[in-house]
Design brief:
By secondary structure, the protein is mainly β. Helix content is 0%, strand content 21%. The protein has a two-stranded antiparallel sheet with strand order 1-2. The N and C termini lie far apart (35 Å). The model has no long low-confidence stretch (mean pLDDT 87).
Length: 99
């Protein structure tokens, strides 16, 4: 059973086919790799921190979260679940600069 995001916001966006709205619904960029439309991309190319927030309409417990990095893999360094006022760190890795 899969649940897709119903709304998305981001700290910035490259725009067009890379806007946060492309993350709503089933993946559009995956399984393709590379800098292609259908995946969110931040506006600045070398910003130290950007974020993408996805909203789900789901009353069921979540068993897994999948993050598909189709360009510059390794850029994701944290996944956080926020429900109400609670924040739970689901996964983290040391941040690194991706060229």
């Amino acid at each position: 059973h899969a649940v897709w995001p119903r709304h998305a916001e981001a700290s910035s966006t490259y725009g067009g086919g890379w806007s946060p709205s492309v993350t709503v619904g089933p993946p559009r960029g995956w399984p393709r790799a590379g800098d292609s439309r259908g995946a969110w991309a931040p506006g600045p190319a070398h910003s130290p921190v950007e974020w993408l927030e996805l909203d789900y309409d789901n009353d069921q417990p979540i068993a897994a979260v999948r993050v598909y990095e189709t360009h510059k893999p390794g850029s994701t360094f944290a996944v956080v679940d926020t429900t109400g006022d609670d924040e739970v760190l689901l996964w983290a890795s040391p941040p690194r600069v991706v060229a």
